[in-house]
Design brief:
Strand content: 25-35%
Number of helices: 9
Length: 621
Amino acid sequence: MRKDGKLVAIDPVKKTINPYPNYNQSINAPKQNIPANSQLYTESPDPKYAAFVQNNNIILHNREQNNFTPITSDGNDSLLNGKATFVYEEEITGANTMRWSHNGRFLAFMQFDESNVPVFSLYIPEGQHGHLEKQRFPKAGDPNPKVKIGIVDAFSKKLIWADFDSDADQYFGRLYFTPDNKLLVHWLNREQNILLVYEVEPENGKKKLLYEERQPTWLDINNAAGFDYINKGRNIIITSDKTGYRHYYFHKQDGTFINAITSGNYDVTYFLSVDESKQVFYFAARKENSARFDIYSVRLNGTGLRRISKGDFHYTNIFFSPDHKYFVANYSNTNTITRSAVFDINGNKLLDIGNEKGKEFDQYALPKKSFIRIKSTDGLFDLPVTITYPQPFDSTKQYPVLMTVYGGPEAGKVYDKWETSLPEIYWAQQGVIQVIADNRASGHFGKKGIDLSHRQMGINEIEDFMAVGKWLKQQPWVHPNKLCITGFSYGGYMTCMALTYGADVFDYGVAYYGTSDWRLYDTQYTERYMDSPSENPEGYKKTAVKTWLHKYKGMLRIIHGNSDNNVHPQHSLEIVDSLQELGKHFEFILYPGVRHGFRGNKWLHSKQELAIFINKYLLTP
């Protein structure tokens, strides 16, 4: 369930934007003479050096002399150097924690001691006897792995450890180097409501506090305090949602606050560019409409905010010319196919580059789509929804509805943009209304909306989806007993909640590898929103699917891979067991060998089974 964070740096020489300044290395690239069991080959900006992981140890590669120097020797099955432990790989860092400094001299990495982390066993049905795959997986309330941050001097081969207490109950964010080659470290307490950002000297590991932020609910270490260095490293633009909405703040290099650059009841979304000569900052934001990204400029002192993009369009893939007189972008909305064009700095279109239309596009009758908003039951939010109507559509007839959701915090699916797929066209032709909806925690309503999920993640979310379902059933063109909901992962959880907690609204559901009980999911993601089970027992009970299984009365299909090492099949098996004990009728499909997501023939089979479900329950009179 990881949603990747971002850090944008400005190259002080080229003045170009590199969204991941320490991601210039190629991962697992094939290299001559590298041991076959090496992992995460990571190239330095200095072409002389690279590093990789072998047997959970870090090996420095002098590419010029083609020799290898072991940096660590203590790696084993429960002590990992460079390679992330599962909870970090899934939620924070990705698999590779190694990062090179811009000058190519220093390599920073994380070391994980997961010997105290409980083991979860997955059954792998291969061979005559099968086997158990053991995974160090800290579930909510469990001990986390202990983490140290190492820094290697590639020139001297010396390894030092950054000045942090490895025994503390804490999290570290992804490692980055500042433009002057100091290590930037984001630190978060176990409760995830205190964020500290340190600058670490790579020569000796000593740290200096640059930034501190506290919030009453939580901070997401992947999105909080994004650091963007400008003016040749003399200033930092820090991104924070501390006001309830994500905004930009201007700071000195030492972390001293200067002024807010943006403010208001809207979220900024992307750092686009900065004109250092004029001290003008360009960014994208969800200001005019939370379902669209528009382009803005503002002076770094916070004055002169100006909307540049024009029209009711969603703008993406935005790139400015070096002199900031022009930009290129893609733009679209629900009923306007994606186009690409060159614009001047005032947002006037100068040149059409192209669009997504094929030669025969105009010969096809595509289904009508609309972007609307539906009021939440408590009246606090106008929930964004897109509807794809049957092709052809007769408003005097009643149609079944297939509603697709995700529903997780700040992971919205609804945007006012062009988005049409072949399955969507097919089901429209079969007479199915297709709906995509977002809830208050989806990111459309800032951190304020997401904060309402604190200690009860899933309740407001399903209530919002129920509000959408009730509105649909009030429409004369919707069949009153054929509302189906479906989703993957968090969307699978929402689907199970819809057929239990929301059973008076939803008639059918297809749940793909969803969570069922937050006690069974990992520490970092779960405790961010729910706190620990011992701190919030009622919240965990209230949000568990099995708490509401007594209300189940429709038809639920549950789908899971038995080798899912992210959302363990334990989640679905818990629901299956309880439904059986209650004597309820349902459907269950288990996919042997499938992880958290389908591939190949298993994916095709799942799509085929979905088609059978839709035809059987939604399209059959």
